[in-house]
Amino acid sequence: MQEFFRVLMPDVKKELRRGIIECSKRGLLHSTKWLAEMHHGLSDVNIDNAAPDDDHSFSECQLEGITPAEYSDYFLAKSYYDVREYDRAAHAVRNCESSVPRFLHLYSTYMAREKRRLDSTTDQANLNEPNQMRDLADLLATLRAEHGRGRLDGYGIYLYGVVLKALNLNKAAEQMLVTAVRMVPMLWSAYLELSPLIMEKKKLLSLQLGGHWMRHFFMAHTYLELYLNDDGLKIYEDLQAAGFNKSIYITAQMAHVYHNKRDVDKAIELFQALFESDPYRLDNVDTYSNLLFVKEMKTEMAQLAHKAVSINKYRPETCCVIGNYYSIRCDHHVAISYFQRALKLNPKYLAAWTLMGHEFMELKNTNAAIQSYRKAVEVNKRDYRAWYGLGQAYEIIKMHYYSLYYFKIAHQLRPYDSRMLVALGETYEKLDKCENSVKCYWKACDVGDIEGIAMYKLASLHEKLGDNETAVHCYIMYCEDERAATDKQSLYQGFMTLANYYEKKCDYERAAYYAYKCLDSDDRKTEAKALLKTIDYRRSAECQKKKSTATVVATAETSSEDEMEWEQLDVRARVPFTSIADTSKTTSTATATATASSSGSAATGASTSAGARRLRAVPERVRRAQPNQRTLTGPTANSTATTPTAATSTIPTISEETPGGSSATTATESETLGDSTPATGTTEQQAAHDSSSMEISSVSID
C-alpha cells in the first residue's frame, strides 16, 4: 500500500484545499464540488494546527493571480458568472490581463455560446451539427493565438482542449488535456474530459500523466468507462485502505462497479448506505433507480421518485427517476415525456437518450428508437447500451447486416458480456452463417451466460442442422440447471425435445421423466399427456410381448422333454431285438420253451403295468402332438398277430422283453380308445407275436 500511495494524508488534504480555492475563483464548479467532497472525506485528518505562516499563505492564495487594480472587475464578473449571466461576466473582464480574470473572460465566453447552442437544441436536432459549432471558431482562434504566445496557464490549456474536443479534433484535444493535467494535477474536470478519448487499456497505460496521486482516481474512473470493472474496483479498494474510506465519491463509484458487474444486490446495498450518509444527494440517483427497476421494486421506486421531486424537481436525474417509475408501470408514453423533459434540461444527458430509446422499442416505434440511440452514441461513443439498442432496432426491421455491425461494436465494448455474444449468434444464424453462430453461442456459455439462453440457442441450432446427438447433449446441459433458465418456455421446449428423443430410442424411463416435467406448462401439457399415453401403450405392448415369448419358450422346453421320454420308451422296446442274429444259432428243448413261456407271461404283466404308468404321466396335449409314434407302434402290435410263427429255437431268447413292450403298447392304445379291459392272450399268441416282432425288427435293423 505504501508503494501504491506514498503521499501523507495531511499533504493530500492541503492540496485539496488549495485546489478548491483555485477552481472556485475561476468558476470551475464541478471540479470545486468534487474536490470539496474529497476534502470532506478526510475530516479525520487534522491540518488546522498549521504554522501561522502557512495560514497567511493560504489566505493570500484566494487572490493569487489577480492584480489589485482588477479586483473590482473580477468581483463583478464573478458575481455575474455565479448567476449564469455568462455574457455579462465575459464583458466585465474583457480588458483584464492577469491570469484569473483572463481565464474567466475566455471561459465565460465559451459557456455563453454553449448555453445558446443547448437552448436552441431540440430533441430532434443533431447535437454535433456543424452550423451549431460555428460560434466556437472565433474562440478557437483566440485560444490558439494565446497558446502560441505562451499566455495560457494550465487552466487556459484545459479550456483549449475542451474547445478542440467540441470541434471533434480529438487528437489535438488529447495532447492539450494531458498537458493541462501535468500542469494542474488537481483539475478534476481535465481528467473527465480526457477519459472519453481513451478507447483501450493499452493507450491508458501509455499516457504520461506524471506521478501525482490524482492519477489513481483518473485510472479507476477510466477503467469503469472501459468496463474493466475488476481493475477499477481494485484501485478503489486500495484508495479506501490508504485513507479515503469515508469518501462518498469512492462509495458511489464502487456501487457503479457492482452495477456494471450485474451484482444488483451489492450495488443496491452500497447506494442505500450512500443515501443514508448523504440523504439529499441526487448524483447517481438515476443509476440507483435503474437497479430498483431491474429488481422490480415498485414501492421503493415510488418513494425514490417522491423524494427526488421534493429535493429538486428540475434536475435531469429527477426526471429520469420519474420516467423509470412510469416505465415499470408500463405507462410508456408518460415515461417518454419525462425523459424528454430531462433532455431539455440537459441535452447531453446520456441516460435519458438511452432509456427513451428503450421506451420507443416497447411501443414498437422503431424509427424513433433508432433516433434516440443515435443521439446517445453522439453523446458517448462507448455506451454499449446504445449500440446494442441500435442492433435490436435494425433486427426488428429485418436489416440483419446493419444489426450485425452494431452488435459487433457492442461486443467490442463489452467482450465478456454474453448478451452481446448471443445477439451476434442469432444474427449470424439468420444470415445462414451457422459456423460463426455456433462459435458465438459456445463463447457465451464460456464467459458466463447471463440470460441463460445460449445453450438453448446452441441446441436449437444443432437440431436445425440435423445433428441430433449434439443437440440432445446441449439440451441435457441446458435442462440440468432449471433455476438458471430465465425463459421457462424454452426450458419446457428442451424437456419436450428430450422426451421425444428418448421415446424414439425406446428409453421409456427417461422419456417419461422429461414428459412429466412438461405437465407444469400450460402450453406443453397436452403434448406431454399424449406422449405419456404413447409411452404407457408401448410399455404394455413390450410387457405382453415378453410374456408371450416366455410362454413359447416354456412350451418348447416341455415338448422337448416329452419327446425325449417317448424316444426312450421306443428305444427300450427295440434294444433287445439287436440280438436276433445270435438267437438264430441257439437251440433248446420243449421243456425250456414252456419255462420261457411262463416266465415271459410274468414279465409281460409287469412290463405292461410299468409302461402304462409312464404313459399316464405324459400330458394329454403332448400325446396328441405325437401321432407318428402311435402310428409306428400300432402296426407293430397288429403285425404281431398276423405274422407267421417263427422257429421255436428263437423263442427263449426274446420272450423276456419283447412281449412286455408289445403288451404295454396295446394297453396304452386300449386306454386311449376308452377300453379299460387289459389285453391278455395265451402263451401261444405271445410266442407268435414275439416271432413276428423279431422278423420286423430284423428287417428294420438290416
Automatic annotation (TrEMBL):
Question: For bias kind Polar residues, which ranges apply?
Answer: 673-690
Q: Which InterPro entries does the UniProt record give?
A: APC8 (IPR007192), TPR-like_helical_dom_sf (IPR011990), TPR_rpt (IPR019734)
Q: Name one GO cellular component term.
A: anaphase-promoting complex
Q: Name one GO biological process term.
A: protein ubiquitination
**TPR repeat ranges?**
248-281, 316-349, 350-383
Q: Which pathway is this protein assigned to?
A: Protein modification; protein ubiquitination
Pfam families attached to this UniProt entry = ANAPC8 (PF04049), TPR_11 (PF13414), TPR_8 (PF13181)
Disordered, as annotated region: 584-702
Q: Where is the composition biased (Low complexity)?
A: 584-612, 631-671, 691-702
Q: Which UniProt keywords apply?
A: Cell cycle, Cell division, Mitosis, Repeat, TPR repeat, Ubl conjugation pathway
Sequence ranges assigned to domain Cdc23 in this UniProt record: 12-255
To which protein family does this belong? Belongs to the APC8/CDC23 family.
Q: What is this protein called?
A: Cyclosome subunit 8
